[in-house]
Amino acid sequence: MDFILSILTALGLIQTKDLADSMQRSKTLTVMVIVALILCSGSVLFLFHMASN
């Protein structure tokens, strides 16, 4: 979980303390954040793939 938080912080998308506290209390939020990261990175990779064709 620390790896995901460090990536989001580096991108400037979140304030770490608030999200970290919420994610420690809620397994559902943790899963939602992980799924959102996977979907967003998949979308970016798809767009790069389509742009190269």
Question: Keywords for this structure?
Answer:
single chain; 53 residues; mainly alpha; 3 helices
Overall 3D form: elongated
> Which class best fits the helix and strand makeup?
mainly alpha
Q: What profile does the largest beta sheet have? A: none
Specify the number of helices.
Answer: 3
Task: Give the terminus-to-terminus CA distance.
Answer: 35 Å
What low-confidence regions span 5 or more consecutive residues with pLDDT below 50?
none
How many domain regions? 1
Hey, roughly how much beta strand do the residues contain?
A: under 5%
Total number of strands = 0
Q: From N to C, what is the helix and strand string? A: HHH
Task: Bin the helical content.
Answer: over 70%
User: Radius of gyration in whole Å, from Cα?
Assistant: 13 Å
Mean pLDDT metric: 86
